Backbone:
């Protein structure tokens, strides 16, 4: 028996569980359930990631303490995960005694061994709030293109990346004050000292090949010290022997894996060190998204190894989740919360759909609305559940729900049973897409068997009634094997199936043993079909109002405006110096406009009528005093004037020939 500890990345405790979280937790839970089904000890722990400035500010905004906030969200997260059958053995919190203990222990060991150093860091400081500002809490003009109201790390308008200190006219998003530069002593883990260890570690089989290659690029490019401290005010653990210094959230968050497991060990009288000492023969597996591999595959194993803990045996990395080909978006409604989904669909539908898309690599996964509906109706209802429904119906009506005493088609039964080890190997690799594909091929085979035997015809012949019992008993036994193969993916449907099969829980061992001379339980409705209309209702229910991430027309108002209102509009001649398609947007072009004394960027919904290269050099008219509008795809600093019914019939307003950029239009 293998002894396995499994974790998922810790959800941050400043918001609700959404489909992105569920992708990872469902992937992890499938792997965990499979291991348990094979008879191994598999302990699954996780926790809320609670510390950091974001938690502190949200608590302040809601008028509660940080402890009250994280307690409320913790209960909400547990309830949501339970609804999706996520089988955590322990779901804990990083704001715990255990986490503080191990954070201090690891820090002290690294410090004593010369792996911690200090360095003065210059940062933007809010003089009113008396705190250093994270990049997301600073806004200003892009140092590259001049776009206003940009965050402190990258420009939404031109895509440039920069240091927050480079922003022009920076403003604190917390107090609207002008930040100042101030130095502070920070604590760093000396990651370059671990270079040789990491070169060996990333190629020891703990990483997927494409992840190891990416990590190697970073190592070869030269590692830098890892900042593990933040200044007060900060919600977190104080660093030992310091004043007003706290562990940065990415220091104590992964240590939360140790803390949650320690909490479980205490409650279950298990030796923590059996799993975490360097020479342990137990296994530790992490499941994470590819956006945090630097923390989990460089920083975390280095910290563990050099403070006398074992490193993870395997880090399973998945890709990002998109919705119908575009990034998750609150304004589009594709940033779907767990609770919103549950208002419309069975949790097993999502588990099955994601299971059908997950592979052993880190490729991104697209949640296609039409594909989702088709797979649920075609695979789960039309193929799988159909086998049980059509077979059980004849047995209940004609044979007192009793199965035959022998298999009608032993060779067919053996064909299904022989797939068990191949399917188990795919589960082990995390390639559930191949599992689902093969099970559905077998379901097709079973449905074809039933169609060829046509029990609905044979039942009419009194001399062949026994054949019908044998055929339908085969159908039930084949269904039992198939639902057993899918049990880690769709536990809700499996549990309902186990009730009517009336033979106890399915294990990997007993699903290859047929049920003979066995009486079934009562058959209830297992699944319902779904439609695209319901999916669209879910998207609509999750969307923020009003939409702000595309070039939506402003709502019309019936009230007339006064001439004084109209005279406030500053219309200027502008020359289009650059035009580009906006990736991810259906209607938008990004226009760079010369307005005489400056340039500005405007996002315009004219893509259906103009190709970008047709616009360069053309003059148009722009509303030059329109307040910049932050959209999903960047900031739009005005509006170009156009008219027409839409589609290809959109016409830019062009000034008189000879009009120069910057001239006022009257």
Residues:
């Amino acid at each position: 028996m293998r002894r396995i500890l499994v974790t998922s990345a810790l959800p941050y405790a400043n918001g609700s569980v959404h489909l992105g979280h569920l992708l990872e937790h469902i992937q992890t839970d499938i792997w965990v359930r499979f291991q348990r089904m094979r008879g191994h000890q598999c302990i699954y722990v996780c926790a809320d990631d609670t510390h950091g400035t974001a938690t502190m500010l949200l608590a302040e905004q809601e008028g509660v303490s940080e402890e009250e906030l994280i307690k409320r969200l913790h209960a909400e997260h547990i309830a949501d995960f339970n609804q999706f059958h996520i089988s955590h053995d322990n779901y804990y919190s990083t704001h715990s005694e255990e986490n503080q203990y191990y954070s201090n222990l690891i820090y002290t060991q690294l410090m004593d061994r010369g792996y911690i150093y200090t360095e003065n860091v210059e940062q933007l400081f809010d003089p009113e709030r008396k705190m250093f500002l994270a990049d997301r809490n600073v806004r200003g003009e892009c140092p590259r293109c001049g776009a206003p109201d940009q965050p402190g790390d990258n420009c939404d308008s031109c895509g440039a990346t920069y240091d927050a200190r480079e922003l022009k006219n920076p403003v604190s998003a917390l107090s609207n004050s002008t930040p100042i530069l101030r130095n502070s002593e920070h604590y760093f883990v000396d990651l370059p000292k671990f270079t040789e260890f990491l070169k060996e570690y990333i190629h020891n089989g703990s990483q997927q090949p494409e992840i190891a290659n990416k990590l190697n690029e970073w190592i070869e490019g030269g590692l830098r010290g890892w900042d593990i401290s933040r200044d007060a005010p900060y919600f977190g653990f104080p660093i030992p022997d310091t004043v007003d210094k706290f562990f940065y959230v990415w220091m104590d968050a992964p240590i939360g894996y140790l803390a949650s497991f320690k909490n479980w060990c205490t409650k279950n009288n298990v030796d923590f060190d059996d799993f975490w000492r360097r020479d342990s023969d137990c296994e530790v597996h992490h499941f994470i998204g590819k956006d945090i591999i630097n923390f989990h595959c460089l920083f975390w194993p280095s910290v563990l190894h050099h403070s006398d803990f074992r490193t993870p045996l395997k880090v399973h990395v998945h890709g990002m989740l998109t919705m119908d080909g575009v990034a998750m978006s609150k304004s589009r409604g594709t940033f779907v919360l767990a609770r919103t989904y549950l208002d419309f669909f069975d949790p097993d539908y999502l588990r099955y759909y994601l299971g059908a898309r997950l592979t052993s690599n880190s490729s991104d996964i697209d949640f296609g609305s039409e594909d989702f509906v088709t797979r649920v109706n075609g695979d789960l209802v039309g193929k799988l559940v159909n086998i049980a429904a059509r077979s059980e119906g004849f047995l209940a009506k004609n044979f007192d729900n009793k199965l035959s005493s022998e298999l009608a088609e032993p060779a067919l039964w053996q064909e299904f049973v022989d797939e068990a080890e191949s399917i188990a190997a795919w589960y082990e690799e995390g390639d559930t897409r191949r599992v689902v594909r093969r099970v559905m091929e077998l379901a097709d085979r079973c449905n074809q068997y039933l169609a060829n035997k046509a029990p609905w015809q044979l039942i009419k012949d009194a001399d062949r009634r026994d054949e019908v019992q044998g055929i339908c008993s085969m159908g039930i036994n084949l269904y039992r094997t198939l639902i057993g193969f899918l049990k880690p993916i769709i536990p809700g449907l499996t549990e309902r199936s186990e009730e009517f099969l009336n033979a106890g829980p399915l294990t990997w061992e007993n699903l290859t043993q047929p049920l003979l001379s066995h009486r079934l339980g009562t058959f209830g409705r297992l699944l319902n079909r779904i439609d695209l209309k319901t999916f669209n209702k879910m998207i609509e229910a999750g969307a923020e109002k009003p939409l702000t991430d595309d070039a939506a027309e402003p709502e019309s108002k019936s009230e007339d405006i006064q001439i004084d209102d109209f005279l406030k509009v500053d219309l200027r001649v502008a020359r289009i110096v650059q035009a580009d398609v906006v990736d991810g947007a259906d209607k938008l072009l990004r226009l760079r406009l010369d307005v005489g004394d400056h340039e500005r960027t405007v996002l315009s919904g004219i893509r259906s009528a103009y190709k970008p290269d047709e616009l360069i050099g053309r003059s148009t008219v722009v509303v030059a005093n329109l307040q910049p509008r932050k959209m999903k795809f960047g900031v739009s600093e005005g509006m170009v004037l156009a008219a027409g019914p839409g589609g290809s019939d959109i016409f830019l307003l062009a000034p008189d020939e000879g009009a120069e950029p910057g001239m006022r239009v009257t």
Summary: The first helix runs from residue 19 to 37. The longest strand covers residues 116-126. Residues 546-558 have pLDDT under 50 and may be disordered.
